[in-house]
């Protein structure tokens, strides 16, 4: 049988452990406290899955295979980029938009000279 001091210490340790687990188990990393942007939601709902912990390289790879989604979010990414702060690139939205910019940069373009100067249009990829 345990003495009162040992039982008291065990009770304190058990309560402390439960309190610690309760505090840390319900917490997410700081980036998860940022509300999901419509850009991230659009890419996730297009089939990319949950992007919070996905690298920019993996997002770029996915967007490269889904150029329609990359084109769809490009205007919103441009707006978000113009309003960014120093931490934006480390957010899910920032990683998605930086990956989107890389994908759009690598897409084939057709340039032609016509009335009024040089014009560029994105050509569609044939599958």
Low-confidence stretches: 9-32, 123-127
Task: Describe the strand arrangement of the main beta sheet, using strand numbers.
Answer: 1-2
Q: Calculate the mean pLDDT score and round it.
A: 75
Number of helices: 5
Blueprint of the fold:
Blueprint: H1 4-25, H2 38-48, H3 56-65, H4 67-82, H5 92-106, E1 109-114, E2 117-122
Antiparallel strand pairs: 1-2
Task: Write a compact overview of the structure shown.
The protein is mostly helical and 127 residues long. It has 5 helices and 2 strands; from the N terminus they run αααααββ. It has 2 domains: 33 residues; 87 residues, no CATH class.
What are the main properties of this structure?
127 residues, 2 domains, two-stranded antiparallel ribbon, mainly alpha, globular, 58% helix
Explain this structure to me?
With 127 residues, the chain is mainly alpha-helical. It folds into 2 domains: 1-33; 36-122, no CATH class. The chain has 5 helices and 2 strands. It has helices at residues 4-25, 38-48, 56-65, 67-82, 92-106; strands spanning 109-114, 117-122. The chain has a two-stranded antiparallel sheet with strand order 1-2. The relative contact order is 0.11.
């Amino acid at each position: 049988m345990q003495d009162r001091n040992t039982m008291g210490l065990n009770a304190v340790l058990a309560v402390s452990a439960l309190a610690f687990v309760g505090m840390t188990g319900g917490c997410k990393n700081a980036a998860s406290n940022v509300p999901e942007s419509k850009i991230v939601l659009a890419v996730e709902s297009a089939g990319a899955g949950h992007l919070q912990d996905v690298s920019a390289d993996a997002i770029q790879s996915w967007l490269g295979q889904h150029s329609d989604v990359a084109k769809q979010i490009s205007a919103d990414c441009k707006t978000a980029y113009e309003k960014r702060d120093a931490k934006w690139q480390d957010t899910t939205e920032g990683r998605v938009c930086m990956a989107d910019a890389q994908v759009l940069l690598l897409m084939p373009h057709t340039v032609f000279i016509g009335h009024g100067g040089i014009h560029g249009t994105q050509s569609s990829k044939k599958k």
